[in-house]
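Service request form, structural biology core

Requester: graduate student, group of Dr. S.
Request type: structure prediction, single chain
Budget code: on file
Notes: please return the result as structure tokens.

Sequence provided:
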Amino acid sequence: MPATPLAQPPATAPRSRSAAPRRLMTAAAAALIVAATPATLAHAAPSATVSPTTVAPGGRVALNIAGCGTKVAKVTSTAFSEVRLAPGNLAADNLSGNATVFNDAVPGTHRVLFECGGPGGQRVTVSLQVTPGAARGGTGGSVGSMSTTQIAVGGTLAACALIGGVWVLRRRAAA
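Core staff response, request fulfilled:
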């Protein structure tokens, strides 16, 4: 009987030599990305805004700071009283509030200091320009004065609307 060859394990394909350099290139790329990312990205400084940036004495401004990382912040200025800001959302990454500029505020540039958390927290300073004059009331300062022609046109439009409304209601009642 012929001799049968012994069963030999299946031949394995030789390992690819390109796997090691590929791993090395991946690790080098990851290290380069980590090194290129600025450390301040994780702990970015907060940003603050005052809106509007120019206001007359007696006017109101909206105060906003984002990126504090705390649920409290305070704002101080020579233009208005100290203001405590409240979270605008559950994550407390946006704190907001309002302030009324003093009626006797000195015209010019006033420093507005935002302070995150308690004493020693992160600080951001922005500028507020106070213009001479007083804040307008009533129409919000959107109307300076009205001419006789504007008043007549407005009155005519209101009268036409009233007459048209009465005509439509009488016509419905008659039908």
